[in-house]
Amino acid sequence: xxxxxxxxxxxxxxxxxxxxxxxxxxxxxxxxxxxxxxxxxxxxxxxxxxxxxxxxxxxxxxxxxxxxxxxxxxxxxxxxxxxxxxxxxxxxxxxxxxxxxxxxxxxxxxxxxxxxxxxxxxxxxxxxxxxxxxxxxxxxxxxxxxxxxxxxxxxxxxxxxxxxxxxxxxxxxxxxxxxxxxxxxxxxxxxxxxxxxxxxxxxxxxxxxxxxxxxxxxxxxxxxxxxxxxx
Length: 231
Known about the structure:
It is built from 5 helices and 16 strands. The chain has helices spanning 39-45, 54-69, 89-100, 115-119, 121-124, and strands at residues 4-9, 12-17, 21-24, 29-32, 73-76, 105-109, 131-133, 136-139, 142-145, 158-161, 166-169, 175-181, 185-186, 197-198, 206-211, 214-217. The strands form 2 sheets. Strands 8, 9, 10, 11, 12, 13, 14, 15 and 16 form a 9-stranded mixed β-sheet that branches. Strands 1-2-3-4-5-6-7 form a 7-stranded mixed β-sheet, with helices on one face. Helix 2 (54-69) runs parallel beside helix 3. Mean pLDDT is 85; it is low at 43-51 and 224-231.
């Protein structure tokens, strides 16, 4: 098994990575969804005891993926943040990440947790983002959104989204983050600190789970035409 899988979607070559990311070679774009920076800090401020280091771990994974792919752009399909932008430890880690990748364009299609990117534009500048797209980004043949319902009806393109944190349970294994491609595409949550919504793939869809160090295509049953009863 390999830790990446080459597929074709809407006529474009894409690379699925076991670290729950998608690479679009032609655009030199690494796409992820649901980074949720500062999620653990948010819970600790609410009095819920959680270990530190989650954001640092996620950013180290991003470091490795950027080095591996040579991406010129990081595109986050919503929920870059988890809450406000306080002076918290995660912010220093993010600034250090941006310093390490000063030439990297970082764009965000704003999600439901990214209110601070709109409400605190001056504080958002501290994140050194190249662009914040309000609801969707159209780059043919794709429309990038956070939630699938955010895609504009009058903008043709294959929709790629996040938001749902899709997972799939296989026999004898824990739930695994999953990519799903059918009428639209769904990316798993990038952060390791995320729950998941169990998906029920439909016949004809393509589903790939992110196992440790492997991207595995899951064979799905095909719809079988019913035979007419004998008379």
